[in-house]
Every structure is written in structure tokens, then in C-alpha cells.
Amino acid sequence: MKLRLILGDQLSKNLSSLNDVTADDIILMCEVRAEATYVKHHKKKIAFLFSAMRHFAHDLRSDGLTVHYTTYDDPANAGSLLDEVQRALDRFDITEIIVTEPGEYRLLSQMRAWSDTLGVPVDIRPDDRFLATHTEFENWAAGRKQLRMEYFYREMRRKHDILMDGEKPIGGQWNFDDENLAPPTQGLNIPDPYEQPADDITREVMALVDASFSDHFGDLTPFHYAVTREGALDALDLFINTRLAQFGTFQDAMIQGQPWMFHSHIALYLNCGLLTPSECIRAAERAYHSGDAPLNAVEGFVRQILGWREYVRGVYWLRMPDYRNANFFEATRDLPHFYWDAQTRMNCLRQCVTETRQNAYAHHIQRLMVLGNFALLAALDPAQVNDWYLLVYADAYEWVELPNVHGMVLFADGGVLASKPYAASGAYIKRMSNYCDGCSYNVGQKNGPKACPFNYLYWDFIDRNADKLRGNPRMGLAYNSLDRMTDQKRKAIRDDSVRFFKALDNGENV
Ligand code: FAD
Ligand code: DLZ
Ligand code: SF4
Predict the structure, then answer these.
(1) I want to staple 379 with a disulfide (CB 3.0 to 4.6 A). Which of 138, 182, 278, 331 is the partner?
(2) Predicted complex ipTM
């Protein structure tokens, strides 16, 4: 008899480990302490995943399959995936273990040793729920000096014939980024996000999470996420019908009290397997062809999934395990308390942490240009920053989190993923949000105790890292400006930064 192990982020019926399943096989699913606490995941993330796992198990059973499901509070729960597999081997006559390759290097390297540890063959199958295989990405990357997402994306567009007009991109250009930079405007009509009332299974899981993970970050209630494939498809439909048309234009905008904007909020479903990337891309493409959404929106959305999502996965598997240890700027500062408690006078950070705590969600620009920008400018320790991002977001798994944080935000990989650091002063946040209106700092002021800290920290970052960044052609403008500054101005920047970092390191409410 075969044992087919399905992980919490493998909730797809077309999974490679289920390809040839029969009613005689045993499917094993388990809620285990090791996975829920190797970083202390957000309460809402655990509730989402456990509920989605339980619904998926029900679904497989109604297809006539045999599922052994270990709940977290089962007194016999052995606490880790390996120990749960061992317990199944003790109970049943298992001749082979079949599993789809996990999304994290940590687990894959453990699983590669399972066959020896357990004395049963382990068939680790490719995860074919992505549009590019590992080999395709490796071939694309081979011999290239720089791995730029844009070129990978164009190949994917051609290969999968998405938004193409023969050999040419529809609309005559590959990318409409210059149309997707609108700042927040007054009176935007932002539709309500998808909301699904909790059913009995979700309520039971919420009680479990409340009792067992009370020391984890984040609000458990209200809980509105979909936990089934049908629910996730409804959430996708709602996005396509009510948000997609504005997605492009306001992709980078941030508004106080508006966590959802025109984003899709589907990454958590995609990453645990409730949605497939192809169906999301095709749904958006159909909306373009039927005239329901403009090209700048549809192309922008397609690029995120067909381009960025596939590309970061490729970089992760190409570069692991060394990737995790890179620290280009030798950054060592501890993560400040306000990443947990939101107690900071910097309104942009206060808003983004508060929304992250409430929803286990923040949209891309909040993650990149507020939370990430500060981590970069303040030289926060990449390991601590990575752990934070991995645990706070419901869509976070290392294969997608690490390249985004390590590569895109912290430039810790020295430029594998991004051609230059995404560092910005307060002017960027002011342009793309209305956060500065409610801030105790003054974004227009460059120096002094009332000045927006992003202003002087930006220049301090540029100055401090001149030996590492000056040679980067994309940093030329920044260094030209730095070189034109008077000594007095540079001293003011240094003094403000020293004062700010001292207060930050003392745990003061900066
Ligand atoms: P939308 O803005 O509606 O985008 C549509 C989809 O495109 C997303 O659902 C996602 O699947 C995909 N996508 C968009 N940008 C990226 C990207 N840079 N990398 C990979 N996929 C992308 N995404 C995750 O799925 N998990 C993470 O752990 C994660 N961590 C991030 C950490 C940082 C510091 C940054 C800057 C980005 C991170 N992202 C991560 C990418 C992106 O921010 C999220 O995918 C997005 O915010 C999820 O919200 P959404 O579904 O509303 O996305
Ligand atoms: C994230 C997560 C959590 C919180 N809990 C479980 C679990 O109890 N059981 C399980 O099989 N998977 C869980 N996961 C998802 C895994 O951590 C995920 O499969 C790996 O990180 C690989 O991507
Ligand atoms: Fe953030 Fe500076 Fe604006 Fe305050 S003034 S919200 S710290 S960018």
C-alpha cells in the first residue's frame, strides 16, 4: 500500500503526488507543531491553513479516497511530518511513500534523507503547479550575467502565448509600468473585499488556534478568508469583476485605512494550491478581450503572476541554500519592537504594521517601500527581517518570501534579483500615499528632530554604502547628488541618523 503525504501548501487535486492515486492508497495530512512553529506564524495564517487543509481532506474523502488526518490537538500527534509518517508506517503496511516536492529547501533536504531514516522508498515528485520547471529556469539563467525578471517574463509570454499578437506583445509593448504609477486620488471607489462567513470547520480551527497559539503575532478575528477551492474561485471572480480594471493604475498607491486597494488578495490561495496560476492569468486575459479591463491593468496583473511569481521561485531554487546567508551590506541591527506592536511615530510604518497584524496581509508597495525600505535604510539583520516576513503574511512560504525580502528589499544578495536597492526617501511615500498627512514628522523637512526619518536615513544609507554602491550605474544620480552636498549638509544627515539610531536601539518610541 502507498502512503501519499500532502503538505499544508499542496491543497490541489492535480498534485503530482496524487496523479495515480487509487482508493487503496492512504493519503496522510497532518497539522504539526514543527511546521506551525518553526517560525511563529500569524494566528490568522495558521487558522486559514488548518481550515483549508481540513476542507481539502473532506473533499478528497468525498471523492472516495482514504485520508488519514491528524489534527493539532490529537493526543497521539507526533509533532513533525517525519514522525507522523513514521507513525503511519507503524500502523499500516506501507511499501512506498509518495510526496510532491515541498516549497522550502529546509523540508526538501530533510525529505531526501527520509528513505534512509525510514527504510521505505520515498518518491519525491516535481511540483508541476508552476508554469516554469526548475530545468527551464536553470536553462534560461545559464550563462547570463544578470537575471532580469523582464527578459524571463517576455519568454514566458511567448512560450505560453499570453497577451500575444503573433510574435508581438498585444498593444505593441511588453510593459505598461509608466501608466501604473498613479498616486492615490480623492474619492476613489474601492470595492469591498471578498468575505466568507466562517463555517463549523473554521470555527473549530479558530478555537484551536486561540487556545494553542495565543503567543503568536496577529489578530485571529475577524476571519473572512476563503478556505475551499470554490471560495477561492469566488474571490478570484470578485477581483476580476470589481477590481482588476483599476489594478494597474493604482498598483503602487497606498491610502490610510485602505489595506485592500485594487489588489487581488489571492496570493494566499495560489500559494497553498487552492488556485492555479494559469486560471488566474487566463481569467484576466479574458477580461481584456471582452473589454472589461484595460491592457495596462491586465498586463500588470499577468506580469506579477507569470513574471515575478515564477521568477522568484526560479531564483530561490537556483541559489539555495547559500542564498539565505548572504548579507551584502553586513547589516546587523535587531528588528525594532514596532514591527510587532506598531508603536512608532512614523505613521506609514504604524499603518502598515497595524494592517499586517489585523489581516496577515499588506500589499506589495507597503511590503516593499514602507516596511522593507525602512529595514534596508536601518540596516536590519536580514535573518530577522526574513523571519518576520515569513511569519506575518498568510501567503508567505520561503520560496517566495526569501527572494522578495533578501533580494528585492534588502539587496542582501548583492544584486542577483534587483539591479539596484529599492531605497527611497520620504518623498516617495508622500507621493504614493496620504500617510504623511497623519504623521508627527514633517516629510518636507530634511533635517532636525521633526524631519521625516526616511529623508536623512536615505542619504545616510547612500553615504554609508558608497564603497559598495558607487560603481552601480543605476546609482549614478544618487552619488552625483551626494557629491554636490556641502560638508555641513552631510554632517547634518550623519548627526540626525546617529541620533535616530541611538533612540531606535534604546527601544524609544521613534
Ligand atoms: P496582487 O498585487 O494582486 O498581485 C497578484 C499576484 O501576483 C499575487 O497574488 C502574487 O501571486 C503575484 N505576485 C505579485 N508580486 C509578486 C512578487 N514580487 N513575487 C511573487 N509573486 C508576486 N508574495 C507572496 O506570495 N508571498 C510572500 O511571502 C511574499 N513576500 C513578499 C515580501 C516582500 C518584502 C515583498 C516586497 C513582496 C512579497 N511578496 C510575497 C510579493 C507580493 O507583495 C505579494 O504577492 C502580494 O502583495 C500579495 O497580494 P495580492 O494577492 O493582493 O497580490
Ligand atoms: C505553513 C504550515 C503550517 C503553519 N502548518 C502546517 C502543518 O501543520 N502541516 C503541514 O503539512 N504544513 C503546514 N504548513 C505548510 C508547510 O510549512 C509547507 O508545506 C512548507 O513550508 C513547504 O512549503
Ligand atoms: Fe512616513 Fe515620513 Fe511620511 Fe511620516 S512623514 S508618514 S515617517 S514618510
Answers:
(1) 331
(2) 0.99
